[in-house]
From TrEMBL, chains A, B:
CDD domains: CAP_ED. This is cAMP-binding domain of CRP or a regulatory subunit of cAMP-dependent protein kinases. The lineage of its organism: Bacteria, Pseudomonadati, Pseudomonadota, Alphaproteobacteria, Rhodobacterales. Gene3D superfamilies: Jelly Rolls (2.60.120.10), Winged helix-like DNA-binding domain superfamily/Winged helix DNA-binding domain (1.10.10.10). Residues 149-223 form the HTH crp-type domain. It comes from Tranquillimonas rosea. Residues 35-90 form the Cyclic nucleotide-binding domain. Keywords: DNA-binding, Kinase, Transcription, Transcription regulation, Transferase. GO terms for molecular function: DNA binding; kinase activity.
Amino acid sequence: MTAVETSPLIRKLSAFATLSTGETALMQRLHRRRKTFVSGRDLVHQGQSEQAAYILAEGWVCSYKLQADGSRQIVDFQIPGDFLGLRSLMLRVSDHSFEPIGSIQASEIMRDELLDTLGRSPRLAAAILWAASRDEAMVVEHLVSVARRDADVRLAHFLLELSARLALVGIGGREGYACPLTQYHLADALGLSAIHVNRILRRLREDRLVTFRGGIVRFDDYDRLLERADFDPAYLDHGGPVLG
Amino acid sequence: MTAVETSPLIRKLSAFATLSTGETALMQRLHRRRKTFVSGRDLVHQGQSEQAAYILAEGWVCSYKLQADGSRQIVDFQIPGDFLGLRSLMLRVSDHSFEPIGSIQASEIMRDELLDTLGRSPRLAAAILWAASRDEAMVVEHLVSVARRDADVRLAHFLLELSARLALVGIGGREGYACPLTQYHLADALGLSAIHVNRILRRLREDRLVTFRGGIVRFDDYDRLLERADFDPAYLDHGGPVLG
DNA sequence: CGCTAAATTGACCCGTGTCAACTGGCGTGG
DNA sequence: CCACGCCAGTTGACACGGGTCAATTTAGCG
């Protein structure tokens, strides 16, 4: 097994299409220019006009939008294998910001490199667009959560979604996973106050469903949590390769 | 001016890139297979595995997700020139449904046609991906609205966003526009109850900001509404052609 | 060992949901 | 041509989920 085959992105795309050596090589070209970033300094900030995106290789990132009143809405978290800023690549200005959570590593991609890659292999294009579509489906699901689900369901749903995403790139499973997020992160992502997140985490813990403490999410009763969470993973489209 | 040049989609894409005759011809090929649909019967329903998307030529559509408890969340409305189901094209199953509002006309596109078109012209690929990115940016903005904005700001923002989108394809302007939506549509889109939508519409009307009645949105004081709405249209990226 | 950020807890308040009732317009069938 | 029904819209009374403020504890770390 080569280093490329174990890259989280390749691993993720394999859930959609089995890639040929030529296609993996094309993907590998996108992994040049790997850089390190640390928390506190955004990779891209809202309003910036830049034509670069990133592939996250290691660590977690959050993408967020700042409001005029100073509050922020976290749109999604990115984990290894995820694209950062793929969407803004086509827009004149980035409509949101990216902040590393801890220290991370990511490879820069320019707009023309991406368009070039899409043109060279329809299968690879399909795989990359699949990943982008899945990301959008997650944003839609977050919209549903924030608009229609109570805080406890919302939080449970969120923890399960992360679990499924992490499992796809080989991190964590049904027991739980390491999670570097603070309760403030959860609050900003779920449209709640940090105080309420705390209350709800306590309730879920007391109900013996999940325990999130000290950077570890531990599932106390996965099946009952699934029920509580109104979690149907269909939107994540983790069905195994469609394109052979 | 040919019929193709006046198609809403071409008109919209022109806000991003000036298209050559060859490129307009490629776009035109996507407009074959025009069909008519009527309200009450979904174009695509959640869970359906199908590999078709549509370009909306006439009328309005809403895309929504149904919950287990029967409530629905409207993710966005589509107006002439918009794609329907571009995202689900790459996923195994559609993660949401499309319902015509009144009678509409739309052209069907298959997955391979789209990938083929993307491969033939990088500029056209860029333009189509731009449109898809803008759609996603709108979903993100809806997320922000639902999570962080009070009902009145949210509603005002929504009406202004629609106004900007309609103006781009030549429908309506700063005075107002024809809008076929019911208060139930607004409620399902904004994460509010229909009753509260009614209350807020009244307030906005009494404050002489907007009047929405009898299928007409009329801006009573556009500038003051902008202020109230926390509306920064940057995310819509309507800046005029980038690619000359 | 103090310093600081994160986590916790309690008291109170407000925006929005829910329930219930009423109005008005419009199409259909007797 | 009127009566009926239906659906969108409208309004008021009341309940409750979650926000806010304030205070305290815990945990990491130089």
